Amino acid sequence: IACKEWASVCAALAFGGQSILVRKGGIAEGPGGFRVNHERFWLYPTQFHQQPGQLRQDCEYWIEKAEVWKHRRKMVPLQAIATVTGVQHITRESQLEQLEARTILTYETLQQRFHYREPGLFVRELVRTVATLRSTNPRIVCEGIGVSLPGRIDDHGRLIFAPNLGWRDVELKTQLEAAIGLPVALENAAN
Q1: Which end of the chain is more exposed for a tag (fewer CB within 10 A), N or C?
Q2: φ/ψ of residue 152, rounded to 5
Q3: Higher pLDDT, 26 or 167
Q4: H/E element, 143
């Protein structure tokens, strides 16, 4: 059994730079929320989604240290086993402050993991991505944004229900258009 996590976090856990693993759950976590099913597991390193800006500045060197964990020849190096000594469910954002010193993640990254099921985080990240694309590619004219989501969407762009995200009755089209300043088309991911 293995837990897939950023390679920099795996390295920091393995070599003492981080003492906790901060998980946000996932799309298949069931009605009771995230649970730890095994008290020992391999750390499965990945570079997917890992960004230096999501690590505290004093901890960015863990990206370089994680190079030894890179996948080579279609093989994943499993080099460390984690042992669960306790589980704490964070229910209030104010509790994140006590975690910051025990992890290499920035406070903003901890907030993102805490709010991962809220539409506002999705809107904020999409706005940031669109702004970055527009500023780094000024010659490209963007006339609108298309968004595909795993859920039921009405004819007016209101998200009725997205069970995998836990979103219900969200005026997503309106929020995105106001935040981005462009027309937005929403579509079900299965279409």
Answers
A1: C
A2: -85, 130
A3: 167
A4: none
- Concatenating the DSSP letter of every residue in 35-81 gives ----SEEEEEEE-TT--GGGB-GGGTHHHHHGGGG--BTTB-----E
The pLDDT score that the predictor gives to residue 33 is 64
Query: Are 122 and 138 in contact, with CB atoms under 8 Å apart?
Result: no
Angle between helices 119-136 and 172-180 (to 10 degrees): 30
H helix runs in 54-106, sequence order: 61-65, 97-100
Q: Between 35 and 111, name the one with better pLDDT.
A: 111
Tokens 């393995």 belong to 14
CA atoms within 13 A on the CB side of 116: 15
DSSP state of 92: S
What is the per-residue pLDDT across 142-164, written as a single tens digit (0 to 9) for each?
899 998 888 899 988 888 988 87
Looking at the predicted structure, is the pLDDT value of residue 51 above 90?
no
pTM of the model: 0.65
Contact in structure between 7 and 47 (CB atoms under 8 Å):
yes
Rounded to 5 degrees, φ, ψ at 118 are: -95, 135
β-pairing verdict for 2-6 and 145-149: unpaired
Q: What is the CA radius of gyration of the chain?
A: 19
* C-alpha distances in Å from residue 185, one per residue of 10, 90, 157, 171: 38, 35, 7, 12
CA distance 54 to 6: 11
